[in-house]
Amino acid sequence: MTDTLNSASFLDSDRIQLYPLPEGERTDGEGSVWYVIVRKEGNLPIGRIGIIHCHPEWKNTRLQIVIQDVEKRRQGYGMEALRVVERLLFDTLAYQRIAVRIAAFNNDAVQFFKKAGYKLEGVQEQGCLYNNRFYDVILLRLLRDEYFRKGVNS
């Protein structure tokens, strides 16, 4: 699976390119592929998007997006990266579902994925420990047929 995800030298859209992060720079083990989100204008790395806990035999995975450059947040780069990866997973690899897990205190991320069409699947109570405090984890997902109904793949 990760060979398939890494086979392209990069993934492309209007304003960004996604470059596979070298294996030596990954910290979450096998079954995951991280891409550096690079803004085409100025060839500037602005974040990362990870396809994590891939299960090709089950046709599902999880995603995580981080836009490290605070000045580049809320400019559509994260959504553009998400659309590129959704197209790869649903159109090219015929995955059935993409899930995300977000700490409840990260309301911006929850709203981002809801805006992208992800649906609430549930809440994992006290599923995250952060700064010596437990927080709930919001579980969201997007199914293949929902993706195609949205029409964003065209």
User: Sheet bearing the most strands, described?
Assistant: 8 strands, mixed
**Strand percentage:** 35-45%
Kindly, what is the distance between the CA atoms of the first and last residues, rounded to a whole number of angstroms?
24 Å
Quaternary class: single chain
General shape:
globular
Widest β-sheet, arrangement of strands: 1-2-3-4-5-6-8-7
Could you estimate the helical fraction of the residues in percent?
Answer: 10-25%
Tell me the number of helical segments per DSSP (H or I, 4 or more residues long). 4
Low confidence ranges: none
How confident overall, as mean pLDDT?
87
> SSE order, as H and E?
HEEEEEHEHEEH
The secondary structure category is: alpha+beta
Number of strands: 8
Q: What Rg, in angstroms, do the CA atoms define?
A: 15 Å
Walk me through this protein's architecture.
The radius of gyration is 15 Å and the shape is globular. The protein starts with a helix and ends with a helix. The mean pLDDT is 87. It is built from 4 helices and 8 strands; from the N terminus they run αβββββαβαββα. The chain has an 8-stranded mixed beta sheet. It is α+β, with helices and mostly antiparallel strands and 154 residues long. It has helices at residues 2-6, 77-92, 107-115, 144-150; strands at 11-12, 16-20, 33-39, 44-55, 60-66, 97-103, 119-130, 133-143.
